[in-house]
Write a structure and sequence with these properties.
This protein is of the alpha+beta class and 457 residues long. It is built from 14 helices and 16 strands. Strand 15 and strand 16 form a beta hairpin. The radius of gyration is 22 Å and the shape is globular. The N and C termini lie far apart (54 Å). This is Hfaza2B.
Length: 457
Amino acid sequence: MSWSEIQPRHWQRPLGENERMIKWIGDRSHPAGREHWSITVIGTFTLWGSLKDSNILPKVRNAWKLLRFQHPSIASTAGTDVLDYLIPDHTALEQWASETLHVISDATITAGDLVPDLKPSPYVTGYFLPHTGEFVLHTAHWRTDGPGALQLLNAFFVALASDEDSATLAWGEEHVRLAPSIEEVLELPEKATPEIQAATAECLKSGALVAGSIGLPFRADPDIRPGRTNMIRRRLSEATSNAILARCKERGIKPLSAIHASLAAANFAGSASSPDGTGHYTSTMRFSLRPYLRKPFDSAQYASALYTGSYMAKVAPDSSWEENATQYDKLYTAGLSREFLIARRQFALQVNGLLQRTGQLGPPRSEVDISSIEDGDKLVTQVHYFGGGREGGLEVLDFSLGLESTSKESYLVFWTYRGRVELNLVYNEAFYDQAVMVGILDTLEGSLRKALQVEGS
Protein backbone atom coordinates (compact mmCIF):
# COMPACT_ATOMS: atom_id res chain seq x y z
CA MET A 1 0.00 0.00 0.00
CA SER A 2 1.37 3.41 -1.00
CA TRP A 3 1.11 6.80 0.64
CA SER A 4 -2.42 8.12 1.12
CA GLU A 5 -3.80 11.35 2.54
CA ILE A 6 -5.68 10.26 5.66
CA GLN A 7 -6.45 13.88 6.67
CA PRO A 8 -5.78 17.19 4.97
CA ARG A 9 -1.97 17.66 4.79
CA HIS A 10 -1.36 14.34 6.60
CA TRP A 11 0.08 11.51 4.50
CA GLN A 12 0.62 7.98 5.73
CA ARG A 13 1.67 4.51 4.60
CA PRO A 14 2.41 1.22 6.34
CA LEU A 15 6.00 0.44 7.23
CA GLY A 16 7.51 -2.07 4.82
CA GLU A 17 8.68 -5.40 6.21
CA ASN A 18 12.33 -4.58 5.60
CA GLU A 19 11.91 -1.22 7.33
CA ARG A 20 10.23 -2.96 10.28
CA MET A 21 13.08 -5.45 10.56
CA ILE A 22 15.86 -2.85 10.52
CA LYS A 23 13.90 -0.49 12.78
CA TRP A 24 13.39 -3.23 15.38
CA ILE A 25 17.13 -3.91 15.42
CA GLY A 26 18.01 -0.22 15.74
CA ASP A 27 15.36 0.66 18.30
CA ARG A 28 16.61 -1.91 20.81
CA SER A 29 19.49 0.46 21.64
CA HIS A 30 17.24 3.47 22.29
CA PRO A 31 17.08 2.98 26.09
CA ALA A 32 20.85 3.53 26.15
CA GLY A 33 20.56 6.63 23.94
CA ARG A 34 22.00 4.77 20.94
CA GLU A 35 20.72 3.37 17.66
CA HIS A 36 22.34 0.26 16.24
CA TRP A 37 23.24 0.60 12.54
CA SER A 38 22.35 4.29 12.41
CA ILE A 39 24.23 5.89 9.50
CA THR A 40 26.46 8.95 9.56
CA VAL A 41 28.04 10.68 6.58
CA ILE A 42 30.46 13.59 6.87
CA GLY A 43 31.21 15.89 3.95
CA THR A 44 34.14 18.31 4.05
CA PHE A 45 33.81 21.20 1.63
CA THR A 46 35.17 24.61 0.78
CA LEU A 47 33.42 27.64 -0.71
CA TRP A 48 34.79 29.91 -3.39
CA GLY A 49 33.83 33.04 -5.29
CA SER A 50 30.48 34.69 -4.62
CA LEU A 51 29.29 31.82 -2.44
CA LYS A 52 32.30 32.22 -0.13
CA ASP A 53 31.62 35.93 0.22
CA SER A 54 28.00 35.42 1.27
CA ASN A 55 26.60 34.87 4.76
CA ILE A 56 26.73 31.08 4.87
CA LEU A 57 24.55 30.30 7.89
CA PRO A 58 21.23 31.44 6.36
CA LYS A 59 22.17 29.58 3.19
CA VAL A 60 22.78 26.37 5.14
CA ARG A 61 19.36 26.66 6.78
CA ASN A 62 17.72 27.42 3.44
CA ALA A 63 19.50 24.43 1.87
CA TRP A 64 18.25 22.18 4.66
CA LYS A 65 14.66 23.18 3.89
CA LEU A 66 15.27 22.72 0.16
CA LEU A 67 16.55 19.22 0.93
CA ARG A 68 13.30 18.40 2.73
CA PHE A 69 11.26 19.68 -0.19
CA GLN A 70 13.12 17.47 -2.65
CA HIS A 71 13.35 14.50 -0.27
CA PRO A 72 10.36 14.81 2.08
CA SER A 73 10.90 11.33 3.52
CA ILE A 74 13.73 12.77 5.66
CA ALA A 75 10.97 14.42 7.70
CA SER A 76 8.62 11.45 7.92
CA THR A 77 8.18 9.86 11.34
CA ALA A 78 7.78 6.19 12.17
CA GLY A 79 5.29 4.62 14.54
CA THR A 80 4.98 0.95 15.32
CA ASP A 81 3.22 0.12 12.06
CA VAL A 82 3.09 3.26 9.91
CA LEU A 83 5.06 6.18 8.52
CA ASP A 84 3.56 9.67 8.74
CA TYR A 85 4.37 12.83 6.83
CA LEU A 86 2.82 16.19 7.69
CA ILE A 87 2.91 18.94 5.09
CA PRO A 88 4.24 21.95 7.04
CA ASP A 89 3.02 25.49 7.19
CA HIS A 90 5.62 28.22 7.68
CA THR A 91 5.72 27.85 11.47
CA ALA A 92 5.99 24.06 11.38
CA LEU A 93 8.74 24.20 8.74
CA GLU A 94 10.81 26.61 10.79
CA GLN A 95 10.27 24.53 13.93
CA TRP A 96 11.40 21.38 12.09
CA ALA A 97 14.51 23.16 10.78
CA SER A 98 15.40 24.39 14.27
CA GLU A 99 14.91 20.92 15.73
CA THR A 100 16.88 19.02 13.10
CA LEU A 101 19.63 21.36 11.89
CA HIS A 102 22.40 22.28 14.32
CA VAL A 103 25.27 24.72 13.93
CA ILE A 104 28.29 23.73 16.03
CA SER A 105 29.93 27.02 16.98
CA ASP A 106 32.56 25.63 19.36
CA ALA A 107 35.75 25.84 17.30
CA THR A 108 37.40 23.09 19.36
CA ILE A 109 34.90 20.47 18.17
CA THR A 110 35.38 18.46 14.96
CA ALA A 111 32.97 16.08 13.29
CA GLY A 112 35.05 13.23 14.68
CA ASP A 113 34.37 14.53 18.19
CA LEU A 114 30.68 15.00 17.50
CA VAL A 115 29.67 11.75 15.82
CA PRO A 116 30.23 9.22 18.67
CA ASP A 117 27.77 11.12 20.86
CA LEU A 118 24.93 11.59 18.34
CA LYS A 119 21.56 10.46 19.66
CA PRO A 120 18.54 8.90 17.94
CA SER A 121 16.07 11.32 16.36
CA PRO A 122 12.61 10.94 14.82
CA TYR A 123 14.03 12.66 11.72
CA VAL A 124 17.20 12.90 9.69
CA THR A 125 19.46 15.43 11.43
CA GLY A 126 22.19 17.72 10.12
CA TYR A 127 25.17 19.37 11.83
CA PHE A 128 27.21 22.18 10.31
CA LEU A 129 30.70 22.96 11.63
CA PRO A 130 31.66 26.27 9.96
CA HIS A 131 35.18 26.29 11.44
CA THR A 132 36.09 22.97 9.83
CA GLY A 133 33.91 23.16 6.73
CA GLU A 134 32.19 19.90 7.68
CA PHE A 135 28.57 18.92 7.32
CA VAL A 136 27.31 15.83 9.15
CA LEU A 137 24.15 13.97 8.19
CA HIS A 138 22.80 11.39 10.64
CA THR A 139 19.89 9.01 10.12
CA ALA A 140 18.34 5.77 11.28
CA HIS A 141 19.15 2.88 8.96
CA TRP A 142 15.50 1.96 8.40
CA ARG A 143 15.15 5.25 6.50
CA THR A 144 17.98 4.74 4.01
CA ASP A 145 21.22 2.88 3.29
CA GLY A 146 24.84 3.82 2.55
CA PRO A 147 24.37 4.88 -1.09
CA GLY A 148 21.15 6.70 -0.21
CA ALA A 149 22.78 8.61 2.65
CA LEU A 150 25.53 9.83 0.32
CA GLN A 151 22.95 10.82 -2.29
CA LEU A 152 21.25 12.88 0.42
CA LEU A 153 24.57 14.51 1.30
CA ASN A 154 25.07 15.35 -2.36
CA ALA A 155 21.54 16.73 -2.59
CA PHE A 156 22.30 19.00 0.36
CA PHE A 157 25.37 20.36 -1.43
CA VAL A 158 23.27 20.89 -4.57
CA ALA A 159 20.81 22.85 -2.44
CA LEU A 160 23.57 24.86 -0.77
CA ALA A 161 24.88 25.95 -4.16
CA SER A 162 21.38 26.83 -5.35
CA ASP A 163 19.98 30.35 -5.38
CA GLU A 164 16.44 29.04 -4.87
CA ASP A 165 14.50 30.38 -1.88
CA SER A 166 12.75 27.69 0.16
CA ALA A 167 9.98 30.18 1.05
CA THR A 168 8.87 30.34 -2.60
CA LEU A 169 8.47 26.59 -3.04
CA ALA A 170 5.10 24.94 -3.61
CA TRP A 171 4.85 23.34 -0.18
CA GLY A 172 1.99 20.87 -0.27
CA GLU A 173 3.00 19.09 -3.45
CA GLU A 174 6.17 17.44 -2.09
CA HIS A 175 4.17 14.38 -1.05
CA VAL A 176 4.54 13.06 -4.61
CA ARG A 177 8.22 12.46 -3.79
CA LEU A 178 7.66 10.46 -0.59
CA ALA A 179 9.55 7.18 -0.93
CA PRO A 180 7.64 3.90 -1.17
CA SER A 181 8.87 0.74 0.52
CA ILE A 182 11.04 -1.73 -1.37
CA GLU A 183 8.20 -4.24 -1.24
CA GLU A 184 5.94 -1.83 -3.09
CA VAL A 185 8.59 -0.90 -5.65
CA LEU A 186 9.20 -4.59 -6.40
CA GLU A 187 5.42 -5.14 -6.52
CA LEU A 188 5.62 -8.08 -4.15
CA PRO A 189 2.35 -9.70 -3.06
CA GLU A 190 1.44 -9.62 0.61
CA LYS A 191 0.75 -13.34 0.56
CA ALA A 192 3.78 -15.33 -0.54
CA THR A 193 3.34 -17.65 -3.50
CA PRO A 194 4.97 -21.11 -3.53
CA GLU A 195 7.71 -19.67 -5.73
CA ILE A 196 8.38 -16.89 -3.21
CA GLN A 197 8.35 -19.36 -0.32
CA ALA A 198 10.96 -21.49 -2.10
CA ALA A 199 13.10 -18.43 -2.92
CA THR A 200 12.90 -17.27 0.70
CA ALA A 201 14.01 -20.66 1.99
CA GLU A 202 17.08 -20.45 -0.26
CA CYS A 203 17.88 -16.94 1.00
CA LEU A 204 17.59 -18.02 4.61
CA LYS A 205 20.06 -20.86 4.12
CA SER A 206 23.07 -18.54 4.04
CA GLY A 207 22.40 -17.60 7.67
CA ALA A 208 23.55 -21.07 8.68
CA LEU A 209 27.08 -20.11 7.62
CA VAL A 210 27.41 -18.01 10.80
CA ALA A 211 27.76 -21.17 12.88
CA GLY A 212 31.43 -21.94 13.49
CA SER A 213 32.62 -18.60 12.16
CA ILE A 214 35.69 -17.02 13.72
CA GLY A 215 35.63 -13.82 15.74
CA LEU A 216 37.94 -11.36 17.45
CA PRO A 217 38.63 -11.65 21.18
CA PHE A 218 36.63 -9.08 23.15
CA ARG A 219 36.07 -7.98 26.73
CA ALA A 220 33.73 -10.67 28.01
CA ASP A 221 32.68 -9.20 31.37
CA PRO A 222 28.89 -9.84 31.53
CA ASP A 223 28.39 -6.49 33.24
CA ILE A 224 29.85 -4.51 30.33
CA ARG A 225 27.30 -2.43 28.46
CA PRO A 226 27.82 -1.02 24.96
CA GLY A 227 29.68 2.27 24.89
CA ARG A 228 30.36 4.74 22.10
CA THR A 229 31.09 3.73 18.54
CA ASN A 230 34.58 4.76 17.52
CA MET A 231 35.78 5.14 13.95
CA ILE A 232 39.33 4.71 12.64
CA ARG A 233 39.73 6.29 9.23
CA ARG A 234 42.54 5.25 6.92
CA ARG A 235 43.04 7.08 3.65
CA LEU A 236 45.68 5.48 1.47
CA SER A 237 48.06 7.78 -0.38
CA GLU A 238 47.39 8.75 -3.95
CA ALA A 239 50.35 6.69 -5.17
CA THR A 240 49.31 3.61 -3.19
CA SER A 241 45.68 3.99 -4.23
CA ASN A 242 46.62 4.30 -7.89
CA ALA A 243 48.81 1.20 -7.66
CA ILE A 244 46.11 -0.87 -5.90
CA LEU A 245 43.42 0.14 -8.38
CA ALA A 246 45.75 -0.57 -11.32
CA ARG A 247 46.73 -4.02 -9.99
CA CYS A 248 43.07 -4.93 -9.50
CA LYS A 249 42.32 -3.87 -13.06
CA GLU A 250 45.23 -5.96 -14.35
CA ARG A 251 43.93 -9.01 -12.47
CA GLY A 252 40.37 -8.41 -13.59
CA ILE A 253 38.92 -8.18 -10.08
CA LYS A 254 36.95 -5.50 -8.31
CA PRO A 255 38.86 -3.46 -5.69
CA LEU A 256 36.06 -4.44 -3.29
CA SER A 257 36.89 -8.13 -3.83
CA ALA A 258 40.56 -7.47 -3.01
CA ILE A 259 39.66 -5.48 0.11
CA HIS A 260 37.25 -8.22 1.20
CA ALA A 261 39.91 -10.92 0.80
CA SER A 262 42.39 -8.89 2.87
CA LEU A 263 39.75 -8.27 5.53
CA ALA A 264 39.27 -12.05 5.73
CA ALA A 265 43.03 -12.39 6.23
CA ALA A 266 42.97 -9.78 8.99
CA ASN A 267 40.10 -11.58 10.72
CA PHE A 268 41.94 -14.90 10.59
CA ALA A 269 45.09 -13.25 11.96
CA GLY A 270 43.24 -11.57 14.81
CA SER A 271 40.86 -14.38 15.71
CA ALA A 272 40.91 -16.18 19.03
CA SER A 273 37.67 -18.10 18.47
CA SER A 274 39.22 -21.04 16.66
CA PRO A 275 42.69 -21.84 18.00
CA ASP A 276 42.82 -25.12 16.07
CA GLY A 277 42.53 -23.21 12.82
CA THR A 278 39.37 -24.97 11.65
CA GLY A 279 36.95 -22.06 11.87
CA HIS A 280 35.84 -20.31 8.72
CA TYR A 281 35.22 -16.58 8.22
CA THR A 282 31.63 -15.63 7.46
CA SER A 283 30.83 -12.14 6.26
CA THR A 284 28.06 -10.28 4.50
CA MET A 285 27.71 -9.82 0.76
CA ARG A 286 25.90 -6.48 0.60
CA PHE A 287 24.22 -5.11 -2.51
CA SER A 288 22.31 -1.98 -3.36
CA LEU A 289 18.96 -2.92 -4.85
CA ARG A 290 18.77 0.38 -6.72
CA PRO A 291 20.35 -0.91 -9.96
CA TYR A 292 17.65 -3.63 -10.06
CA LEU A 293 14.69 -1.26 -9.69
CA ARG A 294 12.52 0.29 -12.37
CA LYS A 295 12.73 4.01 -13.05
CA PRO A 296 12.62 6.37 -11.23
CA PHE A 297 13.35 4.27 -8.12
CA ASP A 298 16.82 3.43 -9.40
CA SER A 299 17.83 7.09 -9.12
CA ALA A 300 18.91 9.59 -6.47
CA GLN A 301 15.34 10.92 -6.49
CA TYR A 302 14.60 8.22 -3.89
CA ALA A 303 17.71 8.60 -1.78
CA SER A 304 15.75 8.51 1.48
CA ALA A 305 14.65 4.90 1.10
CA LEU A 306 15.88 1.53 2.32
CA TYR A 307 16.75 -0.25 -0.92
CA THR A 308 19.41 -2.76 0.10
CA GLY A 309 19.82 -6.51 0.55
CA SER A 310 22.43 -9.05 1.58
CA TYR A 311 23.35 -12.68 2.16
CA MET A 312 26.19 -14.47 3.94
CA ALA A 313 29.30 -16.07 2.43
CA LYS A 314 32.20 -17.95 4.01
CA VAL A 315 35.85 -18.64 3.22
CA ALA A 316 38.00 -21.38 4.72
CA PRO A 317 41.10 -20.74 6.87
CA ASP A 318 43.34 -22.67 4.47
CA SER A 319 42.18 -20.81 1.35
CA SER A 320 44.72 -18.49 -0.25
CA TRP A 321 44.20 -14.76 -0.75
CA GLU A 322 43.84 -15.37 -4.48
CA GLU A 323 41.17 -18.01 -3.92
CA ASN A 324 39.21 -15.77 -1.57
CA ALA A 325 39.47 -12.73 -3.82
CA THR A 326 38.30 -14.83 -6.78
CA GLN A 327 35.35 -16.21 -4.80
CA TYR A 328 34.25 -12.78 -3.61
CA ASP A 329 34.67 -11.34 -7.10
CA LYS A 330 32.47 -14.02 -8.65
CA LEU A 331 29.76 -13.27 -6.11
CA TYR A 332 29.95 -9.49 -6.47
CA THR A 333 30.03 -9.74 -10.26
CA ALA A 334 27.11 -12.17 -10.38
CA GLY A 335 24.96 -9.69 -8.46
CA LEU A 336 21.44 -10.58 -7.40
CA SER A 337 19.02 -13.05 -8.91
CA ARG A 338 15.32 -12.65 -9.58
CA GLU A 339 14.71 -15.20 -6.80
CA PHE A 340 16.58 -13.00 -4.32
CA LEU A 341 14.48 -9.98 -5.25
CA ILE A 342 11.08 -11.69 -5.05
CA ALA A 343 11.97 -13.01 -1.57
CA ARG A 344 12.52 -9.56 -0.04
CA ARG A 345 9.16 -9.28 1.71
CA GLN A 346 8.88 -12.85 2.96
CA PHE A 347 12.54 -12.96 4.00
CA ALA A 348 12.11 -9.86 6.18
CA LEU A 349 8.85 -11.22 7.63
CA GLN A 350 10.48 -14.47 8.69
CA VAL A 351 13.64 -12.85 10.04
CA ASN A 352 11.62 -10.28 11.96
CA GLY A 353 9.48 -13.08 13.37
CA LEU A 354 12.61 -14.83 14.62
CA LEU A 355 13.88 -11.60 16.17
CA GLN A 356 10.58 -11.02 17.92
CA ARG A 357 10.59 -14.55 19.36
CA THR A 358 14.25 -14.90 20.37
CA GLY A 359 15.65 -11.36 20.48
CA GLN A 360 18.56 -12.27 18.19
CA LEU A 361 19.43 -14.13 15.01
CA GLY A 362 21.99 -16.41 16.64
CA PRO A 363 25.06 -16.41 18.88
CA PRO A 364 26.77 -13.00 19.31
CA ARG A 365 29.32 -12.38 16.58
CA SER A 366 32.64 -10.59 17.00
CA GLU A 367 34.18 -10.55 13.53
CA VAL A 368 34.87 -7.47 11.44
CA ASP A 369 32.27 -7.49 8.67
CA ILE A 370 32.34 -5.41 5.49
CA SER A 371 30.22 -2.73 3.84
CA SER A 372 30.98 -0.72 0.73
CA ILE A 373 29.63 1.87 -1.69
CA GLU A 374 32.64 1.33 -4.00
CA ASP A 375 32.89 4.39 -6.30
CA GLY A 376 31.98 7.46 -4.26
CA ASP A 377 32.41 9.78 -7.24
CA LYS A 378 29.18 8.34 -8.66
CA LEU A 379 27.29 9.49 -5.58
CA VAL A 380 28.93 12.75 -4.46
CA THR A 381 29.77 15.34 -7.12
CA GLN A 382 33.06 17.12 -6.48
CA VAL A 383 32.11 20.63 -7.64
CA HIS A 384 28.78 22.45 -7.40
CA TYR A 385 28.44 25.87 -9.05
CA PHE A 386 26.40 28.57 -7.33
CA GLY A 387 23.15 29.24 -9.13
CA GLY A 388 24.32 27.14 -12.06
CA GLY A 389 26.89 29.78 -13.02
CA ARG A 390 30.66 29.88 -12.70
CA GLU A 391 31.11 32.89 -10.45
CA GLY A 392 31.16 30.85 -7.27
CA GLY A 393 30.36 27.51 -5.75
CA LEU A 394 31.55 24.78 -3.45
CA GLU A 395 33.99 21.92 -3.78
CA VAL A 396 33.61 18.66 -1.86
CA LEU A 397 37.10 17.78 -0.65
CA ASP A 398 36.28 14.57 1.16
CA PHE A 399 33.53 12.51 2.69
CA SER A 400 33.31 9.61 5.12
CA LEU A 401 30.66 7.01 5.78
CA GLY A 402 30.11 5.09 9.00
CA LEU A 403 27.50 3.40 11.13
CA GLU A 404 26.87 2.87 14.81
CA SER A 405 27.52 -0.53 16.35
CA THR A 406 26.23 -1.35 19.81
CA SER A 407 27.31 -4.99 19.52
CA LYS A 408 30.57 -6.92 19.51
CA GLU A 409 30.46 -6.99 15.74
CA SER A 410 32.61 -4.38 13.99
CA TYR A 411 32.47 -3.11 10.42
CA LEU A 412 34.92 -2.03 7.76
CA VAL A 413 33.46 0.48 5.31
CA PHE A 414 35.30 0.79 1.97
CA TRP A 415 34.96 3.32 -0.83
CA THR A 416 37.02 5.28 -3.33
CA TYR A 417 36.76 9.03 -3.87
CA ARG A 418 38.86 11.43 -5.88
CA GLY A 419 41.18 8.56 -6.78
CA ARG A 420 41.88 7.51 -3.19
CA VAL A 421 41.20 4.20 -1.46
CA GLU A 422 39.30 4.93 1.76
CA LEU A 423 38.76 2.67 4.76
CA ASN A 424 36.72 3.36 7.89
CA LEU A 425 36.71 0.79 10.70
CA VAL A 426 33.90 1.21 13.22
CA TYR A 427 33.72 -0.62 16.55
CA ASN A 428 32.24 -0.29 20.01
CA GLU A 429 34.79 0.97 22.51
CA ALA A 430 33.27 -1.07 25.36
CA PHE A 431 34.46 -4.32 23.79
CA TYR A 432 37.73 -3.45 22.05
CA ASP A 433 40.84 -1.35 22.54
CA GLN A 434 41.74 1.06 19.77
CA ALA A 435 45.13 -0.63 19.39
CA VAL A 436 43.44 -3.90 18.44
CA MET A 437 41.49 -2.23 15.66
CA VAL A 438 44.51 -0.31 14.41
CA GLY A 439 46.21 -3.71 14.22
CA ILE A 440 43.35 -5.07 12.12
CA LEU A 441 43.75 -2.20 9.66
CA ASP A 442 47.54 -2.67 9.59
CA THR A 443 47.13 -6.39 8.84
CA LEU A 444 44.52 -5.69 6.17
CA GLU A 445 46.71 -3.11 4.45
CA GLY A 446 49.75 -5.36 4.67
CA SER A 447 47.81 -8.26 3.16
CA LEU A 448 46.55 -6.05 0.34
CA ARG A 449 50.00 -4.69 -0.47
CA LYS A 450 51.57 -8.14 -0.43
CA ALA A 451 48.89 -9.78 -2.57
CA LEU A 452 48.90 -6.98 -5.14
CA GLN A 453 52.66 -6.35 -4.91
CA VAL A 454 52.25 -2.71 -3.97
CA GLU A 455 55.05 -0.99 -2.09
CA GLY A 456 55.58 2.52 -0.78
CA SER A 457 53.77 4.71 1.71
